[in-house]
Amino acid sequence: MQIPILSWLVFVPLIGMVAVMLIPKERVSAIRWTATIFSGIAMILSFWLTWEYFVNYSDTAAMAFVEGPYDWIPTLHVEYFLGCDGISVPLLALTGLLSLISIIASFGIKERVKEYFAFFLLLEVGMMGVFVALDFFLFYVFWEIMLVPMYFLIGIWGGPRKEYAAIKFFLYTLFGSIFMLVSILILYFNAEPHTLNMMTLMQTAPGMTHTLQMVCFIFFFIAFAIKVPVWPFHTWLPDAHVEAPTAVSVILAGVLLKMGTYGMLRISWPMFPDALRSLSFWIAVLGVIAIIYGALVSLAQKDMKKLVAYSSVSHMGYCMLALAAFSSTQAIAGCMFQMISHGLITGALFLLVGVLYDRAHTREIAVFGGLGSKLPIYTGLMVFFSMASLGLPGMSGFISEFMIFVGAFGALNKTLVGIAILGVVLGAAYMLRLVQNVFLGDFNLERWGGLTEINGRELVTVVPLVILTLYLGIYPKQLNMLMSATIENMINLMAR
Amino acid sequence: MVQYLTLAAILFSIGLFGVITRRNTIGILMSLELMFNAANINLVTFNKFIAPETLTGQMFAIFVVVVAAAEATVGLAIVLLVYRNWRGISTDNFSILKW
Amino acid sequence: MTENAYLIPLLPFIGFVMIVFALRWKEKVAAGFSIAMILSSWVFSIIVLIETIGRDGAPYEAFFYITSFDTLNFEIGILIDSLTAMMLIVVSTVASCVQIYSLGYMKDDPRFSRFFAYLSLFCFSMLGLVIANNFFMIFIFWELVGLTSYLLIGFWFEKKSASDAGKKAFITTRIGDLGMIVGLLLIAGGCGTFNYNEIFSSVAAGTLSPTMLTTGLIFLFAGAVGKSAQFPLHVWLPDAMEGPTPVSALIHAATMVVAGVYLVARAMPLFESSATASMVVAIIGITTSVMAASIGLVQNDIKRVLAYSTVSQLGYMIMALGLYGYDTAMGEHSPGYYAGTFHLMTHAFFKALLFLGAGSVIHAVHTNNIQEMGGLLPKMKITAWTFMIASLSISGIFPFAGFWSKDEIVATASTHPVFMFFTLAVAFMTAFYMWRLCFLTFWGKPRDQHRFDHAHESPRSMSWPLAFLGILAVGAGWVGMPWLKAGFASFVYSGEAYKPHADYMLMGVSTVVAVSGIGLAWLMYAKQVISPDKMVARFKPIHKLLLNKYYFDEIYDFIIIRPVLAFGRYMWTFDARIVDGLVNGVAWLVMIWSDIKMWFDKWIIDGAVNGAGWVISSTSSLLRLVQTGAVQFYALFILASIVILAVVKYEVVYNDVSWPVLSIILLAGLYLLSLVSKSVAEKAKTAAAATATDSGEEEK
Amino acid sequence: MNEAANPGIVFWVLSAIILVTGFMVVSLKNIFHCAIALVLCLSGVAGIFVLLGAEFLAGAQVLIYVGAVAILMIFGVMLTSNLAGKKIIATTSNAMVAFFATVLFGGGTIVTIFMTDVWRYSSESLPIDNVMFIGKLLMTEFMLPFEVVSVLLLAAMIGAIVLARDEES
Hints:
The complex is a heterotetramer.
Chain B: H1 2-21, H2 25-49, H3 56-86
Chain C: H1 7-23, H2 27-54, E1 60-69, E2 72-80, H3 82-105, H4 112-131, H5 135-153, H6 160-191, H7 196-204, H8 210-227, H9 236-239, H10 245-254, H11 259-266, H12 268-271, H13 275-296, H14 302-329, H15 336-365, H16 381-395, H17 401-413, H18 417-442, H19 449-454, H20 460-475, H21 488-492, H22 504-526, H23 532-538, H24 540-547, H25 552-623, H26 631-655, H27 659-699
Antiparallel strand pairs in C: 1-2
Helix pairs in contact in C: 1-2, 1-4, 2-3, 2-4, 3-4, 3-10, 3-15, 3-20, 4-5, 5-6, 6-8, 8-11, 8-13, 10-14, 10-15, 11-14, 13-14, 13-18, 14-15, 14-18, 15-16, 15-17, 15-20, 16-17, 16-18, 16-20, 17-18, 17-22, 18-22, 26-27
Chain D: H1 2-5, H2 9-27, H3 31-51, H4 55-80, H5 95-115, H6 130-139, H7 143-164
Helix pairs in contact in D: 2-3, 3-4
């Protein structure tokens, strides 16, 4: 019997949360370090898991590190069933990394520190859980668990319109969740014997009638699309991002958005291949709209965080485009790459915007200018990630975008993909506009003379992301090897 | 045997009546002792007539006696405390269960 | 050495990394290290060239896969053939000269070491671009040179115009790259590989349909259009002159901008299969050439004139390559390929020289405007002479390098009358504007005495590279003399060997054209026999059109940039108003609905509830009497309840009583309860009195 | 069997004493008199125990109840009430209802006793050496309850001391 590493991965943050709650709230630094240590343990576990998976399991498509299924609520056939494969392992590692980084980035939080870190660790539990759950009930529970801390994290520690943003986020996601629940129930009652086991349903669900598949598919799609977010379900995102504290934005962009695409890839795509075939064109259209639309709207933004937020819409549009091209290995692999690299890059961009916001207390693009001469390291990092975001070769964003284009071009309508490629130019336009207006040009010494260079703690949070972005951009082979067997299997499942 | 049981029943009823009606807290305690004794009579009776070989009834009675003693001690201590706080031990004084 | 050719791009990269992480604070060391690295690359390039000549230009290829998806392999590798070897030499030579030159030019710049870091990064990218063995890799470096170009144009980013120009360059070339991606997807995706040779053989085997190939090639060419600043994406290059002059020399004259030409040359086996695509290439080339040359006639900024000249010359090369592709597709022989690549090389040298010379001039007089210069010849001898050598070279005067390469281009165009006409027109215009520049700058009287007094010859770090390039500007063309048995043509030729022959007729024509151009310039600006002002007055509308560069910027601004920005803003409003408004509208509807429900709740449901509540509260105020708070009373109540329940149960179980009897019993129970309540009421009355008396007694 | 049917004259005498004194305990107005009546009543119960062959229990009854508890009560009375000799309303106003209910309860119980006509009498008799047997049982089978009850007593004792202690001292 091996160690139940996935359970540990999920529950270490929970233990951390309990530990944080046991510390008196005055002992702020003890709370911070406890949270850091526990999320650090989770991160190490997730990395170790990735390594183990890479070494031992990456050539098979089967679930690894499986725990269960153990009966949990036998009357409902609910099981405790965890497992991971090539598409969840990288996301687990990403979650572990970004959680730790976010917690370190949250050291600046001054008020209600104890609750903050407790919520954050709970959030990590939910995120980890979603990526390892193989039982629909468990999946749904983890999916909903995340909502609560997220709501409070935005609603308590957020910006001026935090309540609005928090409620909007909450309602939006809950709205989607309801559809998901209905769909899960349809699956449950259509399976004979009734079951909530994803692996079993993966085999039986494609046998459902076309109509039923369509219903389930669309319901799941709404739930996941809100999370991604796919145009036109995206309007919660800018508000939530702008109002949320920096670290929460990082998690939001880095991990939460991925749960939507992960859900599609894990659940709705392989389970309802008939429906997928009927709808793939429209999904691609939505993806292309998101790419262009997000980029155009980014171009008009005055607030840095909002710009990055809308660029997320655009970047996740690439994921949707890739998912629509479900028959192509390159596209699906590109989608995974895009998920990871968007997590890294956008996470870093939010961190960096947060760094500037901490010092200047504004995020308006127009008030800055010429910071390049005053803050060279900060500028270097920002330019680096802007370039990564616009898909410069040598960084992870390029690999993913290129892969997606290659895959989608072969599998989808060429004109559509051609329009999507326009997003590359628009991406360059809005990122360069940001860089130019903030970092280049005249420096307003009077107003910004007091700005200080990025400090050590903030560097610690950003540098790992720099390294990973470069690593994935220059040598994507290992990540690809990690995923390829699973992706092959996925494609076979979707081709049923 | 029914005679013993009847005696116990009557004694118990008397005790019960006392518990309900006595105004004096110590009186209530005394009535409680009556009820305990009624129960003990029952236990010993059953022991003698139904299951003499094990002596379980007597054992129980002994424990009841002990517990009763403990109860009396604590009860009286409480009464003393009440007395000190309320300057009286009439049950009219403390209807604090009603708020 | 060929096996280790990957070192050639890698060395400058090491330079970049070292400067950024280690040598940043020691400016001199940083610059020295960077120069040492590029010089090593230069030496290696020479060795590679020699070895390649030794192999008779046979290609050498080595690569490894970075990853593969499905059957599509992504590889990093090197391909050394004659074209690559030639490009390596060009790039490393110019880069070395420019870096040395920068020592002097950038001496007092606060970001001195950063400049060298960027230059090193550029050299890495550019050398990587030319050494690549597949389209994926070329695209990577293609983007990287774009990045370094962006960084270097905006090097003096405090200037708004500089950062604007950087952005413009990046985005404009990205538009071309977009086409390039599509082209790659069409061609490489269609063939299932990125590797040059595999694609070439695959296309030769007819994997792609002709339409697909043509479309793909035109899209691919869009990348070259962007990078090589061809019409209609040429607008970024003149603006890119905002960058430091060495950058203009290196990136925007000699190397990066010829990447597009290189791409076309590299993909020539494909263009050979598609006459349509080749024709498009040729037409774009000549259009650009004519347009840029005509704009160059009237510009007053020394660097902009050179920039337009660059664009024009690049158009030349592109045209030559396109015509070659067309001719070959038509089954005819053509020197175009040889002409294009040859001109690429010679142009790189003399244009770099021109830019460096211009930089030297600017360094001396601190202005870009040629109208404020004049008479600098005696003050800056080396600069002036090398500049004029380069001008002769670009004008195509025997025996300078430009003569040989331009002659081949003319030879290529000679079979196509229309092209021939425009080619000669461009040659004329080129000679004119170059010598207009020379005469205005170095001849005549100083037009701005203050600046003239200030002028001086540049330091040796700047003049020596000029001299070196001057030699190349003369001699680089000699390798391509038509009389050579194994000259440039046989070296670089990709297909069957082309034997260049000296066509004295064409040589004569082009020389006449060039000389007449120079002569006109001499008459107008040196002798001033013909007044330029009069000419301007006579051709006022045309002059204005040219001065404003055919209003390209304005047109783009009007039909592309503004609409896109406006569209973005509109979309944002749309997003905030409509999409989000929809969401909020739904929320609003829900609110209205809940208002209605609230009204209903308040008056109907709440009414019922309140009614019930009233009943309950009045009942409970009665029942409240029962809650005396006296424990004994509760005990009594429990007792009474036990008794009643026992009786009821007894009756039901043992006597099987009917409901009437039971109700009598219950009535009895109720009577009991009423007694209880009665006693309670009494108690309530007496309680107060009792406490009063108790406390009264206590006091006694 | 015979004994079960007819308990003999001593029983009736003891019963009378118990019931009368018991009723006195709950009804007398003077609480001190009540305490005296309680002593008598408990002594009567001890007698009943002797009749039932529980000599040890009878002894314990006398020692604990009569000796300790009742005296404790008397002390309690004297400590708490300076009205030891006074006459106040002894019963609450619920007396009538309570009487009625108790009579019903007791009557019901007695009726139940008499109606249960199949008592499963045992044919055996009590062990001769009653006390020793109880001692053995206490040390073997009822060891744990015994210990527990000791602890309980100790706790009660300490609790009583803590509760009754004067704050000043």
